[in-house]
Design brief:
- By secondary structure, this protein is an alpha+beta fold.
- It has one domain (about 5-70).
- It has 2 helices and 5 strands.
- The protein has helices spanning about 5-10, 15-20, and strands at about 25-30, 35-40, 45-55, 55-60, 65-70.
- The strands form 2 sheets. The protein has a 3-stranded antiparallel sheet with strand order 1-2-3, with helices on one face.
- It is flat, with a radius of gyration of 14 Å.
């Protein structure tokens, strides 16, 4: 779960630690952007597999089944305002 206070560490140092530990997949959830980024470790590098927004149906490795609506992660937040 990303937060403004920890995002740079989560996207930097923590990803390096997880890669060295052999963690195969990484999900970064950004509640401010209502977004999920899905990464897979390949050849010691993080490859972005997919990005989900708002209430998209999520089916992503390594938890592709069952799928779920991303909006379940922010049940009390109103959807982002449409941009003109």
């Amino acid at each position: 779960m990303l937060s403004p206070a920890t995002e740079s560490c989560d996207r930097g140092e923590k990803r390096t630690i997880y890669a060295k530990a052999g963690v195969g997949h990484l999900w970064l959830v950004d509640p401010m952007m209502r977004m999920l980024e899905v990464f897979e470790l390949r050849d010691s590098k993080w490859l972005l597999l997919d990005v989900f927004h708002d209430d998209a149906q999520v089916a992503a490795a390594p938890f592709a089944e069952p799928s779920f609506p991303l909006g379940l992660l922010w049940p009390f937040d109103p959807p982002p305002a449409a941009q003109a």
